[in-house]
Amino acid sequence: MDPSMDTWDLSSPLISLWINRFYIYLGFAFSISLWICVQIVIKKQDRNLQENSFPKATQDLMTNGYVSLHKKDIFVSGVKIFYGSQTGTAKGFATVLAEAVVSLDLPVAIINLKEYDPDDCLIEEVTGKNVCVFLVATYTDGRPTESAEWFCKWLEEASRDFRFGKTYLKGMRYAVFGLGNSAYASHFNKVGKNVDKWLWMLGAHRVVSRGEGDCDVVKSKHGSIEADFRAWKTTFISQLQALQKGERKKSRGGHCKKGKCESHQHGSEEREEGSDEQDELHYRDTEEEEPYEGSSEEEFGGEDQQSVNSIVDVEDLGKIMDHMKKEKREKEQQEEKTSLFRNTGRNEDGERRAMITPALREALTKQGYQLIGSHSGVKLCRWTKSMLRGRGGCYKHTFYGIESHRCMETTPSLACANKCVFCWRHHTNPVGTEWRWKMDQPEMILKEAIENHQNMIKQFKGVPGVIAERFEEGLTVKHCALSLVGEPIMYPEINSFLKLLHQRKISSFLVTNAQFPAEIRNLKPVTQLYVSVDASTKERLKKIDRPLFKDFWRRFLDSLKALAAKQQRTVYRLTLVKAWNVDELQAYAQLVSLGNPDFIEVKGVTYCGESSASSLTMAHVPWHEEVVQFVLELVDLIPDYEIACEHEHSNCLLIAHKKFKIGSEWWTWIDYNRFQELIQEYEDSGGSKTFSAEDYVARTPHWALFGANERGFDPKDTRHQRKNKSKAISGC
């Protein structure tokens, strides 16, 4: 046999395999893929079989092929019971409720609202899993009891303060039971209703309907206030048990919208016992929905008129149309009357109209104003509250040495000639270019302003953290900031008002918007006179201040020139709005040379929340570092000035004229006693004996200077950082 043939026969299969290797690879790949698919199907069938074989509870215990201990979810970690009591009834109810909660194996804490500081502690309830119960009594004239007064005041202000917002307490769960007497129909359970409303406005979630206990056994729903509480307690404990299990009971309560409530059953006597509120998500998704439910038709001013969305009988259609026509005629007649007196500024009796209309009074009162007469107001500054508690003063304390806890913020004129985009009051105050309203006397305005201010200070008696010495000092007004709102210089008797202030040894800080140059020239000496310089060009000023005067720019420049003629302390007040007025530094420098002020305050704008009247957003608020950079660049263009002080917390810096730098030390503070001596001499001489800004200066402490480690915060006080989930807004 030929050896070569044997070799060929042996190698020919290998050659065939080599030639067809791609088909072999393809076959292997197909086989592997098929095997993988089969395995996946088998495992999926096994998994379905297991799911059908094991109950749900057993499946939750299976992890990676072995049984593990499952961590039990905790939905309620405890209950905190807060009470505000005058006679001890609410405190007794708190003890009874605590015993019922303990029976559920839940920890419970009973807290007297008098010993509780909501500013520091309430935000902690957002992240905790506690349920907070508030047992609050209504005292004289619908006011809270003394022990709950501070808590209610803080809660009310927080609910209306844009700095807190509508989600400040989101995550907190609460329930409210109010104690009252229906014999006082207009104030029945007012405190309980308000606490319920304010908590809801801050984003907290109500777990059960508000309970209302009635001391009047005749009208009490269950025969006595104790029985009312027992019925509500039963509902609360039932809901608490459901929360423990992670369940949420469906609401059987009414639907609340825009401050009015529609119950399935009308009237407090007919309402279903223990009816719960609607689901939280339903509330949050309903725009402008109010949190509280009505316990009677009178509570919300029940009307006989049918809702627009209700079904109307055809037979009643004619009556409804007649009623609508009558309302239309009355409205047209009212508009005609209004137009007749609009231009004259007088009412039907020929008298001048009051500046504060009923609607305006309601709006300003809701914002915390204490209104005086027909055109004035006073309000407690948040820095006054802060310094009373030893938590620091305002930038005026840092720059000029005022005692913030002794400063009264007021205005003799709520009207203004501008509609600034950064207006703190969202333009709820009236506007005008001249005084056309009836006028109150300055003696009455000052007297009531001081009385109202003192009453607001007195509300801080016993508040946690208030320093007793400062509380007593705060009752005596030493400074008056005429910068609350509006244009104080519009008031025809402004000079008389200032004279009365100085007679009471009260210093005066007056702010004007630079639209009344004649009034500035005629103004008698004040401790410190401010002019707001909100922009450096005509176009920017029109955009930011939105003045009512057509010749606003000429008035603006004339006001600065009038300021230059003043001998006492003068200040330019610059409010920086990012992307609107932070450019054109050279134009600002020219305005400084025009008015030659003693000081220039530069402050970042404060965002005051959303408003249909302004397009301002948080994007327009400059960082403190940006304000510092602006000031550094501006000072380079005005050689007679230097940076003197800083108040970081208010996002504010002070530029001072070099004449206030004596030697190497700054003297920007004010000798208030010396000023009172000088102004008295001025008055006694009939205005012939004048004085200048340098005559009543005081040395500025080191901590207030720009570049100091304290950044303008007085080391005598303790810096307080609000515990909030969101980043704090710059500004004061």
UniProtKB/TrEMBL annotation:
CDD domains named among the record's database cross-references: Radical_SAM
Presence of keyword Transmembrane helix: yes
Pfam family, one: Radical_SAM
Gene Ontology molecular-function annotations: 4 iron, 4 sulfur cluster binding; FMN binding; metal ion binding; tRNA-4-demethylwyosine synthase activity
Gene Ontology process terms (BP): wybutosine biosynthetic process
Gene3D superfamilies reported in the protein's UniProt record: 3.40.50.360, Aldolase class I
Domain Radical SAM core: 400-644
Boundaries of every Flavodoxin-like domain copy: 79-237
Start-end of Basic and acidic residues biased regions: 259-269, 316-349
EC number: 4.1.3.44
Catalytic activity: N(1)-methylguanosine(37) in tRNA(Phe) + pyruvate + S-adenosyl-L-methionine = 4-demethylwyosine(37) in tRNA(Phe) + 5'-deoxyadenosine + L-methionine + CO2 + H2O
Biased composition (Acidic residues): 270-279, 286-302
Region span, Disordered: 243-349, 710-732
Record's keyword terms, sorted: 4Fe-4S, Iron, Iron-sulfur, Lyase, Membrane, Metal-binding, Nucleotide-binding, S-adenosyl-L-methionine, Transmembrane, Transmembrane helix, tRNA processing
Comp. bias regions, Basic residues: 247-258
Enzyme class: lyase
Cofactor field: [4Fe-4S] cluster
Transmembrane intervals: 22-42
Pathway connected to this protein: tRNA modification; wybutosine-tRNA(Phe) biosynthesis
Protein family per UniProt: Belongs to the TYW1 family.
Alphabetized PANTHER family for the sequence: S-ADENOSYL-L-METHIONINE-DEPENDENT TRNA 4-DEMETHYLWYOSINE SYNTHASE, S-ADENOSYL-L-METHIONINE-DEPENDENT TRNA 4-DEMETHYLWYOSINE SYNTHASE TYW1-RELATED
Annotated function: Probable component of the wybutosine biosynthesis pathway. Wybutosine is a hyper modified guanosine with a tricyclic base found at the 3'-position adjacent to the anticodon of eukaryotic phenylalanine tRNA. Catalyzes the condensation of N-methylguanine with 2 carbon atoms from pyruvate to form the tricyclic 4-demethylwyosine, an intermediate in wybutosine biosynthesis.
Protein name listed in UniProt: S-adenosyl-L-methionine-dependent tRNA 4-demethylwyosine synthase TYW1
Organism: Aotus nancymaae
Lineage: Eukaryota, Metazoa, Chordata, Craniata, Vertebrata
